[in-house]
Amino acid sequence: MSESTGNTSDAGTAAPAADAAVTTPAATTAPAATTAPESPVTSSLLSDKAAEPAATPPVETDKAPEAKTEPEKPAALDPKDYKLEGLPEGIQADDELVQAFLDGAAKGGMDNESVNAVLNALGPKLTERLNAGAVAFKELNEKWQTDAIADPVIGGSAEKLEANMAVVKNAMNTLGLPAEMVTDALRTFQFTGAGNNPSILRVMHAMASRLVEKSVVQGGGPAPTGKTAAQRLYPTHFNNAG
Question: From the centroid of its chain, how far is CA 72?
Fold first, then answer.
């Protein structure tokens, strides 16, 4: 009896352990932690403390530029060292424009061949420019001579103009001036072109005519008959000219 009782008590005590093992709940896996999305806002007026601003990424500094090597400047030359060959007609080596060009060419380091090439290329235009003033002055005087021949007061024809100009030169001689002074005056008229200007020639002729008329009256000759001074001095020439 005692053994069955003991067995019964052991069985009774073992059963709850088995039940405990059955009812123990299985372990559960903790959910994964979620990460809040980042926000570009770094502070809030409702926050106790403003969030620290995000760190500014370092700015890459530019690399120092590499030093450039300056080309060596050619040594300054002496303009007198250039040997000019085959200068165009009308251009002289000592001309001011040529010398100014040689000064610049020397400072720029131009060699002798380049200098001659430039001068030969610019030669015709340079000559034209240098002579432009003389050409224009010559053409102006030729126009004045043509206008003087056609002028109704001092000309009308080449022969009449020549006779009237003889009156002017004769009047200059009658003033009692030294011959050298008269010669210089005539040379100046030619050099400046004034001796071809119709306006000046008309004035000179009018003055000369007055002198001739005055000399005729003072000399006891007949009074003027309406003829010009040239007609009175050269009557044969004007009669033949008609």
Answer: 29
State the helix-helix crossing angle for 158-174 and 198-218, rounded to 10 degrees. 60
| Domains in the chain, number | 2
- Residues 88 and 85: their CA atoms lie apart, in Å, by 9
**Segments forming the whole domain that contains residue 223:** 151-241
- Asked whether residue 161 falls in the same domain as residue 224, the answer is yes
Residue 19 in domain: no
Quote the mean pLDDT of the chain: 75
The burial of 194, by beta-carbon neighbours within 10 Å (0-12 exposed, 13-18 middle, 19 or more buried), is given as: middle
pLDDT score for 127: 83
pLDDT digits (tens, 9 = 90+) for 137-185: 999 999 999 999 999 999 999 999 999 999 999 888 888 889 999 999 9
